[in-house]
Amino acid sequence: MRIRPAERGDCESVMLVHVSAIIEHGPKAYDDRQVAAWAAKTEGVARYERAIEEPTTDLLVAEIDSEIAGFAELDRDGPEIKALFVAPAHGGSGVGTALLEECETRLQSLGAETSRLEAVLNAVGFYEAAGYEPVERVTNTTTADVEVESMKMRKPLD
Fold first, then answer.
1. Which of 43, 80, 117, 152 has the highest count of CB atoms within 10 angstroms of its CB?
2. pLDDT above 90 covers what percent of the chain?
């Protein structure tokens, strides 16, 4: 597995990983309406293209045999991890952990003492296993004004 910065040509694959992970794992914590709204990427690849172009954002991909197996988005200004998703075919293979560790390393190199993120409810256990602590449950509005809850979490970096 190789983790590298995403390129514009990766955006379609990144979106497919994002949507497939939501459809596969979202129903563990959200109802059908919430999953559908969350998975509806109405702006297509534009979100990922903006992340690549934004100088304060790192969009990273995990690549296995030239296939995008997962991605993470890091806001260096926050600083916080904005997204981390793994293709269902690669779940449990260490892709998520490798992306998370890369984000944490980058945060440390920026001088951050704490890693922060907002986890979807079906991913809270993954982050807790990696040493993150729940801070606050929040509600966000997604496509079609559908509300979904998530958990703000943090982890001291040492």
1. 117
2. 95
